[in-house]
Amino acid sequence: MNVALLCLSWVLAELGLGAAAADVQSWWHWPWSLFAGFRKEDLQEVFEEACPKPAGPVEERHADALEVLLAEERCPFVAAFFSSSSPLSQSAKLALTEQRLASSFPALRYIRVETEQMSIRTFLQWDINYLPTYVLFWPSNSSSPWQRWQSGRHANPYDYGDVSAWIAQATGLVPQNSSHLSAGPVPVRGLSRSSPLGFGWALVVIAVLHRLLNRTPLARDASKCLFEAQAGSEGSGTDPWRLAMANGALSALLHVLGLVLVILDFLIWILTLGPVWMLQKTLAGVPEFARPVRKAKINGSGPGSDVWQATQAADDGKLLTSPHPEEGVFTVFQMLDRSFKRYATSKAQGIRPLLSWKKEEGYRFPAKVFGPTQWRTYAEMGKLCKEFGAGLRALGLEPQPEGDFDSMTGKFKILMYEDTCADWQICAYGALTQNLVVATCYATLGTDAVVHAVNEGAVTALVCNRKAAEGLVKMASEMPSLEVIIYLDNLCTPDECKHRLTAAGSVKLLSLQDVLDLGKANLVEPSPPKPESVAVLMYTSGSTGTPKGVVLRHSQLVAFVGSCYIQFGALIYEGGEMFIGYLPLAHILAVAAELYFYSTGNCVGYADAKSLLAGPERCYPLGGLQEFKPTLMAGVPKVWETIKKGAEVKVEKSGPVVSFLFKLAMKVKKVAVRQNRYTPLFDLLVFKKFKSMLGGSMKFTLSGGGAISGEVQEWVRAAFSCPLVQGYGLTETCGGATIQSPLDPSIGAVGTPLASIEVTLHSEPELSDSSGKPYLCTDEDHFGDPCRGRGEVWIKGLSVGSGYYKLPDKTAEDFDKDGWFHTGDIGLITPAGQVKIIDRKKNLVKLKGGEYVALEMINVTYNNADIINADAGGVCCFASHEIDRPVLLAQCKRKELLELAAKNGVTGKDGEELCRDPKVMAAVKAALDVVAKAGKLPSLMQATAVMPVLEPWTPDNGCLTATSKLVPKTVYKVHEKDLDILKPMAMKG
């Protein structure tokens, strides 16, 4: 018996039913504990978040919590059974009076049954799938006030007939034949005992299996079926009870299948020595990646802050300078030249030539049609780079001089204004062979940004796409330093490339092949840069204002690459990996990632965001992921959020069976990942297909460029059966400062310091969290979780940039005299040395009451809502000292918003009229409230009002940067009238 209980307890825990698993050993005393409508985890969550202390007597808090749970339909049968281990006190039960709940839930009727041995069958016959009934059971005892209240009505709590009669009285449902009360299942509304499944026992099976997965949408649908059928079939002759039974039977079959799959998966895991593997992983633990090495006196007269270094740097007593210091590799040129020679015959770049565009009926945009992939070896890549560099020299460019970079003059800068492609790197790396400086500009930005970058840097050569070349030639008069424009044929069809572009005037217009031919005819030896030479002038995306040019030197980029060797060495091998390049190379994350892969002799296959997957409006015959089968993929949070939402929508459209199995598999897989287990059966049946979406060879994925929600991170890890790690860094730190190890299973951390830098926290006594506690380097906990300090993240080391181009005041502000770069991000360090970013200093806004709220945390949480359109910018939170609570501007999906409006009686409206309708605003807020509670967003940070938005935020209207980051100031300005509506709603009283 004990073994059986242990196995059953494990199954329940596997399914996330912790409360039922905890009570399993008392089932013979409390036969209904299996059907607990509210899980302890849910109760605890609501007590802490929805009903924070002090909110009145404990019984009122508990009653409030149950109201929240009912409102969110966390109990699909709207029924609760309480055993002796129930977290609710007797006083809380007393607080759940019919009058109290009836005011919030007028559609419900209430039954109170006081019994210690209540027949499950009795409850099932009357309440299964009957939504308008709320049933509350608890054990009887002599001190129960309800026993006295029911005196005379309920003389024998064990009497089947008496209890049934009382239920019938409360619900108004009358059995067809009262003589059956003690003889067996009671037929109801025309369903006799001779029904094929045996009505009573079929309901028992349905209820048991329904309860095991009562959080799935399918279960909620089944539990609502009867109520909806009753409302929709009046006068139609359709028997709503039979409809409910059919839906319930389908649910029962699916749950039987689900239980069988869970048990089989567990057995296969045991047979494949899974417990041994799990034990090894558990005992090994997470390796130490960082530790404090000294104190930094950066807090004035206050205590010093711990300085954290990567374990290897701490052991060596110095920061890492290069991946190959023993070979004298200290510049990007030396690092790439090493790869060109060492991996000469290996594949380096994968290029898919565009053959044509395919416009399909019913779709707005055409799809790309690619030809067979063409490969360049490292030797071929090196040859092209040297020829391009020589071609630039022939065009009059010269190696950069020595001295102060801000005051240097001469023809030594080339600006890249092109989308990501293999030839982008040929041009950039070619320029570095001649000690030129590569400046970057996002191809999604307009020509005004190009003019600004060219003029600020006195740029001599500009690289762009063929389609942009003629327009830039016309603006040449606005860029006096510009002498040559070089165009690439990236994503141009053979027909588009047939004609040669020419330009009149002082600016030369040449194709890439023209420059290569010129270099081949005038070949010169490389001009090797020095470690302190500037390699890249990389402009930031401009989320906080005008883009700033960050000065990055050769030694800094090489040190960063060297630290990646340490961080990923356990999974990334020389010459055997594939990286998919699709992120904009004007972003430091893409530049740094590709540089690391080229330094290790691995392949980079090129695609773009719209051609990662095949299909209408994307590409044919294969998507980039299926074609290149990458082993590593990097993406910003928006990429992973889009993948998650897209997959979930596709699953939902596949029908209830597929939806049920996927959600079951996802639930089991998430639990397994946390426990260092694998799920062999579900990996084969479900997740193998998801893994194939990414090519089938993915070792791990990386998220950078912003905060990713824990929900998305956990989902991607489970769905694609590979780690999704977070990285944290800025353009000013060569893209990376901390990166989570693929061996680290934690959620929400952005990793430990890289071996080339060190991290500390600067106390911010004037800033405080939502509880009013200031951020100090001496803090030992963060909302109950242990930590080793909180404050602004400061970074120092060999891969930290050299400041901002021609912005001495801003450089002095962010880079102090001791070499610390002030990130502007508020973070904490865990006891294991992991950094967690809480928010940005500029995103910490003080409310009218003096409390601080973290805008970034609020945005990330609400962006998980299904109704939110992340592609159009997602959610933008507004808070200020003039209001008591934050409000939201929320980009909504049009279809979902119209459906939500119709459900709330709002039809015939669109645009601003629809969005500003009070009923629509309230409905959207209600949908987002559920996400806020699920994400455990503190009540202080939960929005009091929401304004839906349908007009997208884009880089063109200034609401997003080129990397799709929000520009809040612009959003606020565009929606000034909307904020005027929201602000009064955020005021108390």
From TrEMBL:
Source organism (scientific name): Symbiodinium microadriaticum (Dinoflagellate)
Family annotation (InterPro entries): AMP-binding_CS, AMP-dep_synth/lig_dom, ANL_N_sf
Catalyzed chemical reaction(s): a long-chain fatty acid + ATP + CoA = a long-chain fatty acyl-CoA + AMP + diphosphate
A single Gene Ontology CC term: endoplasmic reticulum
Sequence similarity: Belongs to the ATP-dependent AMP-binding enzyme family.
Signal peptide: 1-21
Span of domain AMP-dependent synthetase/ligase: 366-805
Domain of life: Eukaryota
UniProt protein name: Long-chain-fatty-acid--CoA ligase 4
PROSITE patterns: AMP_BINDING
Keyword field: ATP-binding, Ligase, Membrane, Nucleotide-binding, Signal, Transmembrane, Transmembrane helix
SUPFAM superfamilies associated with the record: Acetyl-CoA synthetase-like
Residues passing through the membrane, by range: 195-213, 252-278
Gene: ACSL4
UniProt key word Transmembrane: yes
Pfam families, per the entry: AMP-binding
Presence of keyword RNA-binding: no
GO molecular function, one term: long-chain fatty acid-CoA ligase activity
